[in-house]
Task: inverse folding
């Protein structure tokens, strides 16, 4: 599958969300959407990223953007993660990895010489027209949420 690029239509999804129910990208039509993909609930980098996005959520909302975190963890795991760290961002569960694959973030990774499949920490900024405005791949957490906020404000 070809890698997604800015300007392309963002792949739609319909995933179970924290707290129950489902979240569809189509339901956010006309809004800016920050879709961030992360490997695992309650790990150090993923926790720091979720806390950073949560802290800036009022500014994202003021700029007309929704923030959605996506990982292959279960809704139950997301609920515990949100509660433990007092997170305010929406989290959706992609246990079947269909959305992770559609966005090209389910990739082969390597640690200590061992190869395995996992989530490449990535963020997609989707414009109100449903098209991808900007992509950050292989994200380094420190300062990332602020960088995304500046891109949202400039959109």
Result:
């Amino acid at each position: 599958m070809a890698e997604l690029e800015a300007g392309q239509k963002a792949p739609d999804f319909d995933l179970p969300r924290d707290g129950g129910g489902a979240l569809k990208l189509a339901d956010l039509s006309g809004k800016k959407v920050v879709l961030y993909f992360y490997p695992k609930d309650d790990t150090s980098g993923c926790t720091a990223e979720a806390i950073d996005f949560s802290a800036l959520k009022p500014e994202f909302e003021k700029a007309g953007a929704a923030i959605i975190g996506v990982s292959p963890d279960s809704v139950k795991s997301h609920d515990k993660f949100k509660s433990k760290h007092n997170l305010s961002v929406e989290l959706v569960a992609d246990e079947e990895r269909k959305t992770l694959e559609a966005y090209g973030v389910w990739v082969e990774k390597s640690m200590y010489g061992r190869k395995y499949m996992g989530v490449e920490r990535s963020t997609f900024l989707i414009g109100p027209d449903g098209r991808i405005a900007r992509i950050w791949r292989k994200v380094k957490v420190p300062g990332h949420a602020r960088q995304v906020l500046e891109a949202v404000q400039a959109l």
